[in-house]
Write a structure and sequence with these properties.
The protein is globular. α29 (589-602) packs across α33, α32 (631-643) packs antiparallel against α33 and α33 (647-660) packs antiparallel against α34. The protein starts with a helix and ends with a helix. It is built from 50 helices and four strands. The protein is 65% helix and 2% strand. It has a three-stranded mixed β-sheet with strand order 2-1-3. It is mostly helical. Pathway: Protein modification; protein ubiquitination. It comes from Anisodus tanguticus. Keywords: TPR repeat. This is Ethylene-overproduction protein 1.
Amino acid sequence: MQHNIFTTMRTLKMMEGCKGTQVYAINPSGTTTTTTNGFGGGGGEKFLQNLLSNSVRSRSNRNFQAIQSKDEVNSAVLAEALASYGLPKTDQIEPHIEFCLKPMNFVETLADVYCRMEGCAQFGKSKMFLEQCALFRGLPDPKLFRKCLMSARLHGVDVHTKVVLSSWLRFERREDELIGVSAMDCCGRSMECPGSALVARYNPESATDPCMCHRDRGEDTGIYMDEECSTSSSRGGDEEEDFDMSFCIGDDEIRCRRFNIASLSRPFEVMLYGSFMDSRREKINFSKNEISAKGMKAAEMFSRTKSLVSFDPEIVLELLSLANKFCCDEMKSVCDAYFASLVFDMDSAMLLLDYGLEENAYLLVAACLQVFLRELPNSMHNPNVARLFCSSEGKDRLAYVGHASFLLYYFLSQAAMEDDLKSNTTVMLLERMGECASESWQKQLVFHQLGCVMLERKEYKDAQKWFEAALEAGHVYSLVGIARSKYKRGHMYKAYKLMNSLISDYTPSGWMYQERSMYCQGKEKTMDLSTATELDPTLSYPYKYRAVSKAEENRLGPAISEINKILGFKISPDCLELRAWFLIALEEYEGALRDVRALLTLDPRYMMFHGKLQGEHLVELLSHNVQPCSQADCWMQLYDQWSSVDDIGSLAVVHHMLANDPGKSLLRFRQSLLLLRLNSHKAAMRSLREARNQAASEHERLVYEGWILYDTGYCEEAIAKAEESVSIQRSFEAFFLKAYVLSETSPDSESSLYVIQLLEEALRCPSDGLRKGQALSNLASVYVDVDKLDNAIDCYTNALNIKHTRAHQGLARVYHLKDQRKLAYDEMTKLIEKAKYNASAYEKRSEYCDREMAKSDLSMATKLDPLRTYPYRHKAAVLMDDHKEAEAIAELTKAISFKPDLPLLHLRAAFHDSMGDLTSAIRDCEAALCLDSNHADTLDLYQKVQQRAKEQLQT
């Protein structure tokens, strides 16, 4: 039978793209030919597509009567798929080069930025926060980047800076994906309001205030004008007796008051009151100044009223031209503001942009620019917009008006890289960004990113050139790019020597050994990868390489165990793909389908097999090899996965449920919660936006908008959305949202009592057990905060009764507070037994046992999840208690090298202080304060250490 199956598979392979009536000969030899170089060529994709088509849609064809068994067909399809693509090979995977700034000593760089920030003038703080943004872009917590971006906007001085940063903040929330939301809609916050961005004032105190602008653009023609521009003269009406001169244009005579016209500008004043003949004439011929009689009448009226309210745009355009020609600054400013107020969408922006550029109208161009930026990435698909931003000529035109900056092109290039990393648009925007770079960090960033993009485009010579430019600017990490470029050009030994010298010249880091492993073989490669994991256990490439190596040796079980190590604490599509691949080879299709579904939740456009096959196609293939599930079955599975704390399994179930019911906003919301728990912030926000778009009711939509606001740092606005939702209809999610945000932002006892009321209201509303379990757990946590421990026990017990397994951890905490350590330990043991991913459970249990058992639990927690920082801090504290100061510092330093965490930096600063190393203590305090300048404990320590350092200098 096996012979017949594979003969049929060969027949299917030969039938690429053929019509049903065409006939092909079958190879009588029974031999199969498969590609042996991993994935093979482009034919693999067509092959699998045909396999999919024939296995799913053409099984009734009379040519395939011999293989009517469903299991036989689909098993054969998957087996032949692996034969066609081949298992992954070690020479096909590479470590990623990071696109962000990566200083050799991150802590020293943070400390330096903080010191320069503190000594910076107020007007220069926005640029300093932008530098901080560039540093934080590479950190896993996106909130740090957004916080710096908000701080940069807060301290924005000029209109250009405000426009770009306001648009960037909006882009980070991806409001362009929200149905019914216009790019120029005011969201109610001054920091992101399109009108507020066009006011050139330094006002950090009011930048976070609610926006006062009118949403009705018909009433909005004056919001962009400064107060001095919108005031009008006390004079009114046409008082003929005041007119003492005329401007003649053709046959028209425009009566004016000499003093008023002269006050428009210095050139008019010289013309009318200077030593020229015109100054003594009552009538002046003005026909050759390219202004109409109507335009000149408007100028005369403006000279008296300082207002443009009654004029048509064509007349105002004439006034703008006249103002440029005769240097009438006030009139130009008012005309500029008038046109800026007319820009509200892409059409108006495209229509008015050329006028703004030609007339050097700063505010008008800013308004047009704002529309383009707030419409990203779609606006870049407009060829005129792309030409403006991408070409050198366009950049020069923007520069002439004061709107070309490093900040602008930094934003544009980041948006372009997310949209299409390898596109010509991305390259050109980065080139313009490089032309605007002036400071060292700016040059390092743009040259390094150009190198990365060229490397992705396989233009290795250009990549090397840009990496070398970044190195020359001071970005030592770009040596990795130089080495990779040389390697791609066939110079492996040169690449090895580069990385070897880097390891010799600097403090070794995990990424250095990881990169050097690329350029050696055998035991040396294995040792480098082991050292890389030892120095930085969060690097994924060593795990992937070891897993694939085992798979090449046909040891698929150990290969899966190896990739499981990193999937236990760091979820990524490439690692999930590898595990799915291994599971398919073992014919464990249910597990493979789980991983592919989870992968597609993280990245819906992911292409499997190194870009050869759409993930959804593989889901369809795998689905025919597992037991079908109804929506009710899926809900039962979701409860099981949730109770076993299997977030990947839960993601897969929700993905399946959404395939059955794609418009279910509640499922999208659940998906976002799971993704946040897995630290997949970008994917979580995408799911939350989809939930908002699919909401069936207004009150539900408001809740999702509230969560979007909370996750992007707007807590008060999130509470307002929750209250608005409750005013329409009382619901579990609205009360829960308000309670959650308040508990996070207002930790005082009075707020805690209010949070308790809100959560009790939530629990009275209809919801499912999964959400009610979470609410009960949250309610219990607040009861603990207000010292109502018996109430907390009741809530945690009720949560456990509906399978909210995480409640064991809260219950253990209560028992510990009641001095029942044995019960607390037992609760955490139950959680460890039930939970699939339980690093946090081991970490928490360590608090409820003796020193040796705690040491064992913390070692296990670190092994399962090296990103958890408490075990490092605890171990370092124990070493300090044992007077092993150097070892304690080394323990913290090791963790800080791959996770510059504020608590780790604070603790190391305290250790340095206790050892009398005040210089190191000050550096660590400054680095910690760069991450959070308001951290009270670190500020207190910093001030004390500084005072001691001053006293030492004085003695």
